[in-house]
Amino acid sequence: MAMTPLVCGLQLYVGFTLRVFVNRSVTMEDIQCYGFDMDYTMAVYKSPDYESLGFEMIRDRMVSVGYPHELLRYTYDPSFPTRGLVIDTAFGNLLKVDSNGNILVCSHGFRFLKGVDVHLYYPNKFIQRDNTDRFHTLNTLFNLSETYFYSCLVDFFTRCNRYTNLLKGFQHGDLFMSYRSMFQDVRDTVDFIHDTGILKERTIKNMEKYVIRDPNLPVFLSRIKAVAKVFLATNSDYSYTEAIMNYLLENNPNAGREKRSWRSFFDLIVVDTKKPLFFAEGTVLRQVDTDTGKLRIGTYTGDLHAGTVYSGGSSDLICDLLDVKGKDILYVGDHIFGDILKSKKRQGWRTFLVVPELTKELQVWDEKKGLFEELKRLDVFLAELYKKLRPPSACCVCLQVLTYRMDMSYGQMGSLLRSGARQTLFGSQLMRYADLYSSNCINLLHYPFNYLFMINQTCMPHEAAAQHAADVASAELARTNNTAMMGRN
Amino acid sequence: MAMTPLVCGLQLYVGFTLRVFVNRSVTMEDIQCYGFDMDYTMAVYKSPDYESLGFEMIRDRMVSVGYPHELLRYTYDPSFPTRGLVIDTAFGNLLKVDSNGNILVCSHGFRFLKGVDVHLYYPNKFIQRDNTDRFHTLNTLFNLSETYFYSCLVDFFTRCNRYTNLLKGFQHGDLFMSYRSMFQDVRDTVDFIHDTGILKERTIKNMEKYVIRDPNLPVFLSRIKAVAKVFLATNSDYSYTEAIMNYLLENNPNAGREKRSWRSFFDLIVVDTKKPLFFAEGTVLRQVDTDTGKLRIGTYTGDLHAGTVYSGGSSDLICDLLDVKGKDILYVGDHIFGDILKSKKRQGWRTFLVVPELTKELQVWDEKKGLFEELKRLDVFLAELYKKLRPPSACCVCLQVLTYRMDMSYGQMGSLLRSGARQTLFGSQLMRYADLYSSNCINLLHYPFNYLFMINQTCMPHEAAAQHAADVASAELARTNNTAMMGRN
Amino acid sequence: MAMTPLVCGLQLYVGFTLRVFVNRSVTMEDIQCYGFDMDYTMAVYKSPDYESLGFEMIRDRMVSVGYPHELLRYTYDPSFPTRGLVIDTAFGNLLKVDSNGNILVCSHGFRFLKGVDVHLYYPNKFIQRDNTDRFHTLNTLFNLSETYFYSCLVDFFTRCNRYTNLLKGFQHGDLFMSYRSMFQDVRDTVDFIHDTGILKERTIKNMEKYVIRDPNLPVFLSRIKAVAKVFLATNSDYSYTEAIMNYLLENNPNAGREKRSWRSFFDLIVVDTKKPLFFAEGTVLRQVDTDTGKLRIGTYTGDLHAGTVYSGGSSDLICDLLDVKGKDILYVGDHIFGDILKSKKRQGWRTFLVVPELTKELQVWDEKKGLFEELKRLDVFLAELYKKLRPPSACCVCLQVLTYRMDMSYGQMGSLLRSGARQTLFGSQLMRYADLYSSNCINLLHYPFNYLFMINQTCMPHEAAAQHAADVASAELARTNNTAMMGRN
Amino acid sequence: MAMTPLVCGLQLYVGFTLRVFVNRSVTMEDIQCYGFDMDYTMAVYKSPDYESLGFEMIRDRMVSVGYPHELLRYTYDPSFPTRGLVIDTAFGNLLKVDSNGNILVCSHGFRFLKGVDVHLYYPNKFIQRDNTDRFHTLNTLFNLSETYFYSCLVDFFTRCNRYTNLLKGFQHGDLFMSYRSMFQDVRDTVDFIHDTGILKERTIKNMEKYVIRDPNLPVFLSRIKAVAKVFLATNSDYSYTEAIMNYLLENNPNAGREKRSWRSFFDLIVVDTKKPLFFAEGTVLRQVDTDTGKLRIGTYTGDLHAGTVYSGGSSDLICDLLDVKGKDILYVGDHIFGDILKSKKRQGWRTFLVVPELTKELQVWDEKKGLFEELKRLDVFLAELYKKLRPPSACCVCLQVLTYRMDMSYGQMGSLLRSGARQTLFGSQLMRYADLYSSNCINLLHYPFNYLFMINQTCMPHEAAAQHAADVASAELARTNNTAMMGRN
């Protein structure tokens, strides 16, 4: 059955904020199975309302367990945090790093540290990211509110003159508050909010305010299901999944006349997946009784019935149930580690990363790409200066200013993906592990289902150099020939 | 003191086989310390003579411990193995994989498996590289001879009709020879050859035949030492290091009139480094008595004297002794894992990977880049076909043929760095961990010591798309304007 | 100050059920600090009421999440489970093992397996206890109710003819219920009951029913505090600790006229200790605000004030705060692993294990020790038979019958500490790690505080043999002499 | 077939130095398979000649690699070291500890530290044995020479006034020699001596001097083989095994008239076993070509032929080949960890520990058991003093003196198995893991093959107390009755 894309296939005509971008070529015709995460993938939360809600819950709980009331004055500022930042729990700093652990940006509370100050903390401007006991990477959009709240904490205690600033925390009379214990308190609070379900409860009560419902979602899933198998694999529990998916699909204005269960859009639904464990040994697979929302005791061993809901399991079990192999699956998720890196490295799945921030990133890039061009020109100029053995100091300052200006266009912490000319850890992971990425999974709708997502073949540095040398030579040849020809004329 | 490079600084004029290539910009002016590995870095072994020597030692030893005499008929064939291949000890296959574990090429003995056959072994055409108990990556040039010998073994037993072929090995009467035990025997043999020192002995006896002596090495090191600290850090023991470095530097025709100890070229010499352990906790640091070649008992605690030789230690100790920080060091080595990945990830050093194969890689690329261009054109054509919903099967065959032709230009296993349009594991590690790379460390001589190695800033796919859209728009605008203008005319 | 014990010091006069038993000599005069666990140490729960309560909560919750209603018919039977049993989650068996993993008793549900049947599951009658993924040891009195409930589950499904018995679980139509998943469900349910605090709530509401209040406890603690430092270290949270300790000490009829806070009995109180982690790296130490029950933010760094309550921390921190060393501390607890083994092996503390079951064990022993004597005589007889090369089969049967009769005197699973002549895992751990043990910590009151708990020095087998040989020889000598003397008369 | 033991079966008549001692009853009739280690089990090395040889080789090599020539003055002193001591590589001390890590004896070089001095190093008189990076336990008789040599080293440098004593080592000008690096040097030297085979070479050259040949060994093995399967499992290589076993069995004066291969005494011979790995995952099993001594390539898969020699493998493979289960095997070895603990804990085998030191231990015990009796009496007296609240200080000194006198009867480090009344780590491991033990494996010959090794059933402390109370009561009753009866008369 030939599919008609909503928007015609010529890529040029897809507005670039709606596009799917390609790190490794994917022939959609070969994809026999689509898997989706739910949170921030199917269900995108409204920013900054949702993050504000999370922030306030953390803040209020922290105050209620004894943190100073002055903290209540802080409100969520979406311009500050980005995903992929690293908290150094020893010194209370927030770090933006590249894939090798080199520090790109460092803030202490809301104060951004200059190079010399960064050196005081990190003599080599470098961290050993493997030390996960000390360094915590905030990989998901759910982490934005805690990232921001932790900065508020550091900001407050640093400024408050009741507290003395020490290297590893604050002293107040007989009391020592380490950055580490403050981080632990924030983590415990976040766990409390998730475990008690109070954030979910508030979300469900006010769906319109917190969850984006894309009117095209029913059409999108129907079309996929017509050509391939479809599954949902979420770490959320069944009752929340039910509430969210019901809102997205059954109550969708575009849901169509005939009432259709949201579960009928999927061949298989798996909740409580415990990703990333799901992509390794997994847990026991249980069937969910969709009437009561409770787990059936025992494990279902019969044939697959469409729309059946399971809890737990593993990616291997899912492949068995759906009778597909890793390479046949395109898995769509928002979690660079739990969804994308793990499914790629452990199982060899095709991956599609949803990056909601991309809409803004593209916008800023479009407006400010002049800065990047300038940066490139300055690089070349700087290289020339070095070749001519001239002191390049003024030029370096220029570079820093440009990088800073470029960063500031994105927000206080700069872009999710780069700092000036350098790529962030998140950016490099996106390029390594996500075959495709886009601001929204529904953007797949703009492409026919037998589309070939093709990378622009790039050369390695030595190949490019060889290429360049050849081009120059042939240009030279052409010039000579031309001259010769001209001479002839 | 201003340095005059042997070859003038404008990069264009450095022949591209002599160039240093850049993955991340490095300002040489900031480098205060140069570190060098010895084997395949300072001392490049002559290929294929040296690999042949290793191969024969392995082969003869294996026969002497009981493997069939028919194996003596095999000789080393440099056109077969490349670095970075993976041995699957379960099935006896040699694999070329990309950074995510997807299989690019698979051979069994000398037979290259077709897609369908690969699927029989690996249903997902994918391996979990983390399973190091099963999969062994052959990262160094020293591994070439054993890689080849293992293929000879598999080839022999597969063809020999005394043996029955089973999935995991060969049966011969009551005897079962698993691929795994054969691999273990090869490893044990290689260890025997290294531990007994017989390979080193043969090498030292015939230096001219096995070791390349670059006449520029003394000049190169002298120049570096004039502007920065220099150290040698090798896993070899002292006596071998002494023999090799003496040959390279003291017996060098360009060594200069005044007799100068090879040790005087270095501020610090460390042998028995046990890399990669050296970049982590390391071992006890001992001083070597250069008269006897024996270790001094105890650890030296005084000031650093130039040319002192140590054994063991760790990268942290070296930084202390030389009073430098990780970012100040450019470390030059040939081992992608032990030298480059570890010094970069654990210590944040600047890294320079020596890739002797690069000379040939560049040569082939230069000759055959037409194939790559064709590959790119075919990709575009294929994408167009998909957009127009036409069956692309013929085109796919073309792609495979082109990829195969391109691979064959490099050797039977194809390029070290790519397979058609896809990058190998080795290639991707080179790009991630080596700031600079070149076919020979001495190529640094072609650049002034305050050179800025600058990367060509690249855009991420979404940025490139935005760029492209803008270009098209402005081209369109220009066209319109032109037309308008033309209309005006 | 000389202490007058409640009961005079001559050990003989302490009824043996009130005694403290000795595995390694302890000079009480050297003990400078007493530490106590709370649950089952200070606060002993009334058996079987408390276990019944736990059992019913587990049972009801399991039924409410979907397990068959028929399970409601089961009630707690205190004669079945003992501490220290091992669940084999693969086959659903309950095992009693010795310290080396040899199986002493094996039940499947309530059916006790005979030797041949045990061999079917365990060909070597042996388990590798290290495999903690498969084998779960139920070390605490809290585990009794789940131990029993798991046996009820296995019993029910084995008998119910709706289910087919398979090696690793039960099949019911399309549903497979593995022993492993059933065990997981029980564990999850127990966690639910503890995490939600519903068991604690019910306990607090009906203290009289569930908690034994020893009238001597205030006197006991006062006396100790007069001669040494005293601390409480419990894994329970503050509010539960407050409720329990208040009941035990402040509402105690013997509390004395003057109202005295329970906290004043201790120099230091630590809740949320997370033992066994507490004896290793521990967690952050926080102060508890005893007015609100909430944690103070930050860590207290000042001097120690008596009765201050902390949360978390580690044994090292406690030693620092109290200024004592490991050997100065006698730690009294009921958890063989979390309290006793860890404090002994990691910290070198003196240990006192509370074994409430000991009252009954001693009672049975007293009544049935004739059986043990008989067992010993039978052993000797058997050995004689072997020496005389006679077939001992009838005798072996006798031994089994005797062992069975002895076991049955204790309960269905036999004694906590032995099975016939062989010691259980629990028994051997008690002897290795507990310096002292008793049925109740308050039994220490029967001894003066400068008492010397002395072991009866025992010989190793070869020493005993040498001893015996000497005794025989001297007896022989004596006999000869006697005869001689008699002859003289 | 009924066996006639060489010595009649009544245990009393077996001289106690020839006896087998029992920790757990073993019915020999059930043993279907006997396994033997070779070194120090079948082949007992002559003490102190063999240890002296090892000592001299270590000493000479250390001097030849640069340690001071004065060390050559040291000679081996068998009265100093015992097995089971622990080296603290941080402080250079030699420790004798109990099973929980409490320090019993501590020497620095040859100086024995008093209590206060021990406290300076170990404030709690306790070590965390788990820290195997710091603490090395010297478990085998092979370790005696290095134990002694390490003490010589510490002794020399401590006394030599060229060196300054520091906490962690010695300073000499610019050179620091840590205790840790000195320990590493000794270990490396020992490895060198074993790897190069020079110790084995010297042993083989002078068998009479170094190896005890028991004339009864052929008879012993023949008798066992008549009733059970027999295997040899040694970590030694084939050529050494061949030399030793040939000397023990073929050249044995009692070997009998007909020439019989030593291999014919065994059903299976396994060399290169790599115990303790052998009792876990093991290595590849290879057949040894007994003509050439080389490994056959491949793995033998056919039936078992008596006397076949294998290399590698694992205990599981051995059970398969011999068709026996763990409980059917009695494994006889001298290595408490590699042979006994591992085979018992991982595989549930029956175990027999050979303790050559036992001959002397028994001799000393026999002579000095009066001291132990005195110790026991003093204990009782001390306990009485405590009860009567009298200062026991003089008595404590007495205890220490007695303990010291008892220790000195065994040697400078005291007994292998105890220190005064307390058991060593080695002693407690012997009791936990060895079912049987004896000074020589051949002592089994003194028992019929259907013997029942029976433990003397012992009571736990609380059982003994109950027993005692009952005895007292019945004695009291008897006395009363007697009195009554007497009254009647």
TrEMBL record, chains A, B, C, D:
Co-factor binding details: Binds 1 Mg(2+) ion per subunit.
Names of required cofactors: Mg(2+)
Organism: Gasterosteus aculeatus aculeatus
InterPro entries linked to this entry: HAD-like_sf, HAD-SF_hydro_IG_5-nucl, HAD_sf, Pur_nucleotidase
UniProt superkingdom: Eukaryota
Protein name in the entry: 5'-nucleotidase, cytosolic II, like 1
Residues binding GMP, per UniProt: 39
Keywords: Hydrolase, Magnesium, Metal-binding
Chain residues that bind Mg(2+): 37, 334
Keyword Metal-binding tagged: yes
Gene Ontology biological process terms, A to Z: GMP metabolic process
